Amino acid sequence: MACHMGDGPDSGYSQCVLKPKTTEEVSKILKFCNYNHLAVCPQGGNTGLVGGSVPVFDEVVLSTALMNNIIDIDDASGVLVCQAGCVLEVLDQEVGKQGLMMPLDLGAKGSCHIGGNVSTNAGGLRLVRYGNLQGSVLGLEVVRKHIQGQSKWRGFRFIEHP
What we know:
The chain is α/β, with parallel strands linked by helices.
C-alpha cells in the first residue's frame, strides 16, 4: 500500500486502496462511497509532482492500475480505445506495431497512465508538433453521480447506455 501514499515529494495516508477493473466497478465503488460519505482520491501512475493523487485525509484511494486493457486499435482511422490505467509506453509500443505512434511522449512514459495524462491535458516532448492531449481525445467513458448506468462522453454530449 505504501506505493499508493506518495506522488513526487508529497506523501499521505489511507487505510483503503481499491483497484477496479471495469467502469462498472468504479461506478459501484463511487456509489458506495457517496452513500457512506467517504471521500475518494483517484489515482493513476503517481507520476505527478504536485500531490494531486495523494490521499490527505484518509480518503479511499481508487487506483486505475488494473484498468489497463487496450480495447481496440483501428489502424485505418488511427483511433485507439483503451482504459484509463494503460501505461503510455505500452500504448506507444502497441500502436507502433501498426505503424502508428502516440502523440504524447513524456519522461514518465514507463509508469504514467493515460487517464492521468488526459486529466492533466499533458503536453510532453511532442507538444509543439501535435499539441496538448485534449486535441487527440475523441471521447471518454465517465461515471456520473446522477446517472444509473454509465455514460460515454463525446465532445460536449452525453450518450446514455444501460
